[in-house]
Amino acid sequence: MQPLLEVQHVSFAYHSESGETFALSDITFSLTEGEFAAIVGPSGCGKSTLLSLISGLLTPESGRILLHGRDVKDFNTGIGYMLQKDHLFEWRTIRSNALLGLEIQKKLDARSRMRVENMLDAYGLSSFKDARPSELSGGMRQRAALIRTLALNPDLLLLDEPFSALDYQTRLSVCDDIAGIIKKENKTALLVTHDLAEAISVADRVIVLSSRPAKIRRIVPIILEIPERTPLKTRNAPEFKDYFNLIWKELNSYA
């Protein structure tokens, strides 16, 4: 079966008057449909740059990035991008914020509107549809932002440290919520995070990058002997500490 996403020998450098800054070197991996992967690496190694390349915002200097076997540049709506900030508009209600992408892409019809209504109900926002973003907690705002992204029914979700602005307790809870929603919607997702525990708790595989220019040092499958895996349950699994120590050692042994 063909992978949903293929990143094939991708390299990239930023160019300025002072010269080249190499960000990524020969990055190769793939994701199958329904898989949740995480990317970790040293600060500034190029993790967010890699997401920008996958989303089509940047173009690789060498290599290819394919979605369903076609160049990502050929897809206008196949990829959803969730950033660190929720970017909800205060002058719009939570419902109208969730519908915004559909409006922009002129895909708002009765069926898509009902799907968004059902997601707002299913994911704990039924009582806040007519509220303004400032009336919601940080975690609820992130749920609303995810629903806005899912409303367009993307094939691939890119998550760029979406929990980093939250306090630790909220972050744990929201991570659990968001991962559960993504699994329930059967979406393929790629998370960038600097939090190793977070990566291990949500991912089927963790992709470990080196310092810049980033190379893939190791891809670690996360295999746990626990029923009904969730991020919170994963943190209490016997294998969790072993995976944490393995990835920590890999990150701290880069040249």
Number of helices: 9
Classification by helices and strands: alpha/beta
Helix content: 25-40%
Cα-to-Cα separation, first versus last residue:
36 Å
Kindly estimate the percentage of residues that lie in beta strands according to DSSP.
Answer: 15-25%
Number of strands: 10
Order of helices and strands: EEEHEEEHHHHEHEHEEHH
Rg value:
18 Å
Commentary on this structure:
This protein is 34% helix and 25% strand. It has helices at 47-55, 94-98, 100-104, 110-122, 138-150, 168-184, 196-202, 231-235, 240-251, and strands at 5-16, 19-31, 36-40, 62-67, 70-71, 79-82, 156-160, 188-192, 205-209, 216-221. Helix 5 (138-150) packs parallel to helix 6 and helix 7 crosses helix 9 (240-251). The longest helix is centred in the C-terminal third of the chain and has 17 residues, at 168-184. The mean pLDDT is 89.
Keywords:
globular; six-stranded mixed sheet; single chain; 255 residues; alpha/beta
Can I get a quick summary?
About 35% of the residues lie in helices and about 25% in strands. The protein is of the alpha/beta class.
Topology:
Elements: E1 5-16, E2 19-31, E3 36-40, H1 47-55, E4 62-67, E5 70-71, E6 79-82, H2 94-98, H3 100-104, H4 110-122, H5 138-150, E7 156-160, H6 168-184, E8 188-192, H7 196-202, E9 205-209, E10 216-221, H8 231-235, H9 240-251
Parallel strand pairs: 3-8, 3-9, 6-7, 7-8
Antiparallel strand pairs: 1-2, 1-4, 4-5, 9-10
